Predict the structure.
Amino acid sequence: MNLYELTYLIKPDLTNEEAKEYNKKLTGELKEEDATLYKMEEPKKRNLAYELKGFKEAYIACVDMDIDPQRVKIIEEKMKRDDNILRHLIISKEELEEEEDPEKEKDVKEEKDDESNEKEEKDESEEDKEDEDKKEDKKEDKVKLNEIDEKIDEIL
């Protein structure tokens, strides 16, 4: 069994409910082919970049699945014969993208906040140092200007 991602476009003349029902029907057919489904997106109506089979918009949906490679060919044939599907694409994936766990999100967010606070503190301290350096440079420039003025006076 290998990991695959199936993305498909459904005709836009269906209502939202019909598109959702159609999506459930397709996922049911995938399960009949012994696919293990991981991530199923609800179909969303989108404008297309170019006209496709006379349509300027379509419902788009995506499914991540684990399935036998021989069964992928069967699924592709079914998709080609289905009149409601404008276009489909099945790609092989190396590994699943991890679903975000709310607990992990909090931990990660807190870590990022801590890191950003530390970074801001470092940035502020670096800015303070840069300001001090600029002030010293200005003083040095003034000293140099005074020296230059004295030398000019001596020459004149």
